[in-house]
Design brief:
CATH class of the largest domain: Alpha Beta
Mean pLDDT: 87
Number of strands: 24
Largest sheet: 6 strands, mixed
Strand order of the largest sheet: 6-9-10-3-11-12
CATH superfamily of the largest domain: P-loop containing nucleotide triphosphate hydrolases
Radius of gyration: 23 Å
CATH topology of the largest domain: Rossmann fold
Helix content: 25-40%
Number of helices: 17
Length: 503
């Protein structure tokens, strides 16, 4: 195998924390090199080093067998190394074409931006990604997160890369969009492009990967040809136990109805985004909502939480109808939402871990207008311990945490509001199998304590493993309902493609 990009004996320290410990990693030319591991294992740190965003504390990087210095992302780009980050770095107030060429605008006459050429190139790359129906003039902020992810991917495909690093590129994509992306990756492989692919979706990366490397606690623990592995082997290397033991299923008896929704509707530009939806969630129950992108799942929980205005329908919490559809009213009534896009909607990027945990309940810690710092610290520290959040310290920037630990911070804040029903929109998006297991365990524990849990997921295996009851949405409607014992992947897929509402 020809070695394209190597990290040799690389370490990275952040203060007293060793994020990477003498790692030697090899990516082979013209292959899809999959990198897996739990959140905080060091994968993204290594990718930041390989793309020039971070500098190693020790060790060296080699490209085509020669030592290189990647002092900045521009250095990496000049050498043909491109990266698609897990968290989006788009400008929501700019169009798709403007985002595609931000910082590298095409010029005519050396002075003026050639908007026509930029739009033409944008259409070409959108078509390559199966998005030919999108206009280059569409504002990125008006796109759903899955299409924003494709714009992020398209930005890199516009450049002439010989090494493409992809950090969780499918975390927000539909099954069809994943298929299109994998087709593009197959083309790149035929063109001798080296792909480094980070993913937590075992079923996906096994389809496309040639080699798999496993990280654990900042160290490389396994490196093998994908053809000589199976899912169980990969999970055991990642977490040290069998995959069948990971998910905890709720076994609590159900009690009174905590959330009752009747005829909920939210209008959209063409058709209702939420169309006459009725559902219930009982105490001690974990209800899953499955559906494809655009099915109306996110819009449903946004209506429940008061983030989005409903045009019709009622929402009752603990038997009392809640006429005020505001976030404050719904929080006070006992709902809490963990949103799908934790970066945009779940975290305050400029705040510390402590402040992000406490921001929704900060009024509890004030006496005559003065905050009580020690009580704040104890409360935040208690949530960190309860949810096993890995942090350098409470004062650390929340952006310094791995994706899974950021998600736990959002969960910690939601739980501090003392909800009776917890709404979770894709709670395991972009996090590893170990962190998924911890969230499944938390959901089961909350149900056992009498909470109601309503969670959205686009992962078939996850819905089957974690839900007591599954609702399927398509075109804004609930098209099927399954008890846990009756859930099959075939049934979920068929109902997610149906246009007939459940009577």
């Amino acid at each position: 195998m020809a070695e394209k990009l190597e990290a040799r004996d690389v370490s990275k320290n952040y203060g007293g924390v060793r994020a990477l410990k003498n790692v030697t990693f090899t990516a082979y030319r013209g292959k899809v090199n999959v990198l897996v591991g739990e959140n905080g294992a060091g994968k993204s740190t290594l990718m930041k080093i390989l793309s020039g965003s971070e500098q190693p504390t020790s060790g060296e990087i080699r490209l085509d067998g020669e030592p290189v210095r990647l002092g900045s992302p521009r250095d990496a780009q000049a050498l043909g190394i491109g990266i698609i980050h897990q968290e989006l770095s788009l400008f929501p107030n700019l169009t798709i074409a403007e985002n595609m060429f931000a910082g590298r605008e095409l010029r005519r006459g050396g002075r003026f931006v050639d908007e026509r050429a930029q739009k033409r190139r944008t259409r070409e790359v959108l078509a390559r990604l199966g998005q030919e129906h999108l206009s280059p003039d569409t504002l990125v902020g008006d796109l759903p997160i899955g299409q924003q992810q494709l714009v992020e991917i398209g930005r890199v495909l516009l450049t002439d890369v010989s090494v493409l690093i992809m950090d969780e590129p499918t975390s927000a994509l539909s099954h069809h969009e994943v298929d299109v992306l994998f087709g593009v990756m197959a083309e790149l492989r035929e063109q001798d492009v080296t792909v480094i692919y980070i993913s937590h979706k075992l079923d996906e990366f096994r389809r496309i990967g040639d080699w798999v490397t496993v990280f654990r606690d900042g160290s490389l623990v396994a490196h093998e040809s994908m053809s000589r592995t199976d899912t169980g082997w990969i999970v055991r290397q990642m977490v040290g136990r069998d995959p069948d033991s990971l998910y905890t299923h709720n076994s609590a008896p159900t009690g009174d109805v905590l959330l009752e929704v009747r005829g909920l509707t939210a209008e959209g530009p063409v058709r209702p985004l939420v169309d006459d939806v009725s559902l219930t969630v009982r105490a001690g129950e974990v209800v899953g909502v499955y559906g494809l992108m655009g099915a109306g799942r996110t819009e449903l929980v946004e209506c429940l939480m008061g983030v989005r205005k409903a045009s019709a329908g009622t929402v009752s919490i603990r038997g009392a109808e809640e006429p005020k559809a505001t976030v404050q009213a719904r929080l006070a009534a006992g709902l809490a939402l963990v949103p799908e896009d934790r970066q945009r909607d779940g975290l305050v990027q400029t705040m510390s871990v402590r402040d992000n945990i406490l921001v929704s309940t900060i009024g509890r810690f004030a006496r005559t207008g003065i905050l009580r710092g020690e009580r704040e610290r104890r409360t935040a520290a208690g949530q960190v311990k309860e949810l096993a959040i890995k942090i350098p310290g409470l004062a650390a920037a929340v952006t310094s945490l791995s994706g899974g630990n950021q998600q736990k911070v959002v969960l910690a804040r939601a739980l501090l509001t003392e909800p009776v029903v917890l709404l979770l929109d894709e709670p395991t998006r972009g996090i590893d199998v170990g962190a998924k297991a911890q969230i499944a365990e938390l959901m089961a524990r909350l149900a056992a304590e009498g909470y109601g849990v309503l969670f959205i997921s686009s992962e078939l295996a996850e819905v089957r493993a974690m839900a007591d009851r599954v609702l399927v949405m398509a075109r804004g409607r609930i098209t099927a309902e399954f008890a846990a014992a009756d859930v099959t992947e075939e049934g979920l897929v068929a109902a997610s493609a149906s246009e007939r509402a459940l009577s």
